[in-house]
Every structure is written in structure tokens, then in C-alpha cells.
Amino acid sequence: MKVYSARTRIKFCGLTRHEDVALAASLGVDALGFVMWPKSARSITPELLKELAVQVPAFVTRVGLFVNQPAELIEQCLPYLDLIQFHGDEAPAFCEQFGRPWIKALRMRDDIDLHQAAVDYSHAQALLLDAYRPGTPGGTGETFDWSRIPATIEKPVILAGGLSADNVVSAVNQVMPYAVDVSGGIEISHGIKDAKLMASFVKNVALSSAH
């Protein structure tokens, strides 16, 4: 059953600086994403993850993003994470082995079957839907056709891909997602967030219609 919410949750992803973590928390952002995949321009080390994670206040979810990476690395990061985001081709059994809540990111290929994905990843807390670009797991800054998301999908939907303060109202009103995920849309450069863009994004999500 699709989960409806009184408000749309917000995840800021690709955080790399203490000041950005502090501002995101002060703005009331629900989840903060830390990219642990070294090929990303927004990646951080486990050592920096530890530093950033300890400053995250209670009731703000710390999310670690991994892309087809070894279980040993994920285990190393677990003490500093509340939720795992699998953004590669990880099988359900791999995702389930860590004893931690997790979400599965899916790139919106032309042939994707979201109903089947909801069955395959039935133990995920949500499905994060991102734009598809061959060879790029995420962070493309591109949107996709939101009408491709079925209203009857059996998992909470986290909408990602090219979101910004300029289009998030339309996105929320059309898709009615459980949450929205933004990275490049609140940046001045990879991993460097902009305070005004962050604040505008949060404000516009709040202005979008409740569902």
C-alpha cells in the first residue's frame, strides 16, 4: 500500500562540509546523505563521515550512499549511519544483511517495472527513483518523466533527479512522493552547498500541496 504523509520529507544528499550539515539540520531537513562511493565528486571518506555524523542532532536521519561496494566498507561506516542507501545493482539479499533500515535507488530505465521492483525489494523502507544516464549511478542533475511513476506502487517513493527550488513544487504536486531528495539543485559546486538555495528548497517543499 502506498504510504501517504501529512508533509513531504526532505533529504539533502552529497554533504561534505560541517557548515552545510549544521544549516541543513537547522532548516528542518529530515535526512542527510553522505556519499561513500569514491568515484563521485561528492564522496567523503569514512573518517570524514565520522566527523560529520557526530554533529547531526537527534531525529535527523544519517544516510550512507553506496554503489556496489564491499560489505566490509559498509560495516565500517554503520556506527555513523541510521539508514543505508543502495544506489547500484545490489541484490535484495545483499541489502538485507546489515541489520539496518535501507532504501533502494532505482534509475528510471525505459524498461523498468516499478511494481516488480517493489516486490523484489519488499524489505526496503522506500524506493528512491532517479534519472537514468548510462554509466552514471546518480547525481546527473537530470529529471525524468514523472508521469512514469504509477500511483499504485506498493512502496513509499522518494523522488530524486534534477530537483531544485524551481521545480520541486510541481514535482510534489504531480507525484505526491513520500520524500524528495536533492543534491546538485542546492549547490554552487559539487559537494559545496549554497545557503540560499538550501533555504529556498525547504521553503518551496513546505509551500507545495499537502497530501
From TrEMBL:
Classification via Pfam families: PRAI
GO MF entries: phosphoribosylanthranilate isomerase activity
Any one GO biological process: L-tryptophan biosynthetic process
InterPro entries documented for this protein: Aldolase_TIM, PRAI_dom, RibuloseP-bd_barrel, TrpF_fam
Keyword Ribonucleoprotein: no
Membrane-crossing segments per the record: none
Highest taxon, organism lineage: Bacteria
Cross-referenced SUPFAM superfamilies: Ribulose-phoshate binding barrel
Known catalytic reactions: N-(5-phospho-beta-D-ribosyl)anthranilate = 1-(2-carboxyphenylamino)-1-deoxy-D-ribulose 5-phosphate
Domain (N-(5'phosphoribosyl) anthranilate isomerase (PRAI)) ranges: 11-204
EC number: 5.3.1.24
Alphabetical UniProt keywords: Amino-acid biosynthesis, Aromatic amino acid biosynthesis, Isomerase, Tryptophan biosynthesis
Pathway: Amino-acid biosynthesis; L-tryptophan biosynthesis; L-tryptophan from chorismate: step 3/5
Signal peptide: none
Family (UniProt): Belongs to the TrpF family.
NCBIfam families xrefs: PRK01222.1-4
Protein known as: N-(5'-phosphoribosyl)anthranilate isomerase
Source species of the chain: Vreelandella andesensis
